[in-house]
Hints:
10-stranded mixed sheet
Amino acid sequence: xxxxxxxxxxxxxxxxxxxxxxxxxxxxxxxxxxxxxxxxxxxxxxxxxxxxxxxxxxxxxxxxxxxxxxxxxxxxxxxxxxxxxxxxxxxxxxxxxxxxxxxxxxxxxxxxxxxxxxxxxxxxxxxxxxxxxxxxxxxxxxxxxxxxxxxxxxxxxxxxxxxxxxxxxxxxxxxxxxxxxxxxxxxxxxxxxxxxxxxxxxxxxxxxxxxxxxxxxxxxxxxxxxxxxxxxxxxxxxxxxxxxxxxxxxxxxxxxxxxxxxxxxxxxxxxxxxxxxxxxxxxxxxxxxxxxxxxxxxxxxxxxxxxxxxxxxxxxxxxxxxxxxxxxxxxxxxxxxxxxxxxxxxxxxxxxxxxxxxxxxxxxxxxxxxxxxxxxxxxxxxxxxxxxxxxxxxxxxxxxxx
Length: 402
């Protein structure tokens, strides 16, 4: 896996050293794999700040400016009160737990997450009430997961101001991790991350931060102002602008992902405007996958014209253990989405879902009863879109569609 020369990930062009990400063979499912298929690992919000940052080898300053919590260690204490003590510091791979073995087995061609935190030592929070940050010295947590691209168009990447965003970009640059959806200016924020999958296939990742997820308009990147690739409304005009941009970049053999931070944190409803916008992204802008996130729990899945739409991936990692109020949504259950697509057409061939439970700030295989609960919930929410979710063994789910 390499980042293509000429992709803007900083003030100058950059490339990932040859061999840093090894090209891996594709997973076999029924004894044969389509020769032009690629497998992508997609996940929702990776919230590495606060309690998670405090157990890593280099915990940052724990001071918080929340209405009722003044130290990140409080979230660590809540997690320990709920599920037992955590011996710390942990190593960088600890928080990914059982997900690392599953990723190794899946042999994904690219790994993409929504990084829901700023990577900075800044002491100047944005006065928004909740502020996430992880110490730059803990970047090894992301490299342990072998992340290829971090989506940054979300409502926490500027929690510590524009300087905190620039720190984030610089840290990702030094770690040779691509990003999409934010930048030092509007041009950089709207430029897709371009990953080379093989000698001929390329993955283009566009990221958009929708106002519906609570991103302030003032966070939008400007001509000379760092910020996010802000999507003010899910409108026809927005589709026209996005379509013009994709036409300028797309080439035959490319797979396009639209990664969108949108909607409320809780609830399974998918507004009609979101569904219509997702369809237009595929029909008009030429995207092959819509990678939606913001909800703290997984939501329904649609396969539209053989293209994958994830309306809400849920949190992949958070520090919510011991926090009461939304237990019915099971935000402790995280999902790894493994999508196998045709490299030539972008059509979905197979979608597997691997459930995990966040416990002791770590991803653990979900118990069978939890996997069954998730299957039932996602099947109910996906059926309205013509998709069914079935069990596959004790620890996996699979999508079925016509």
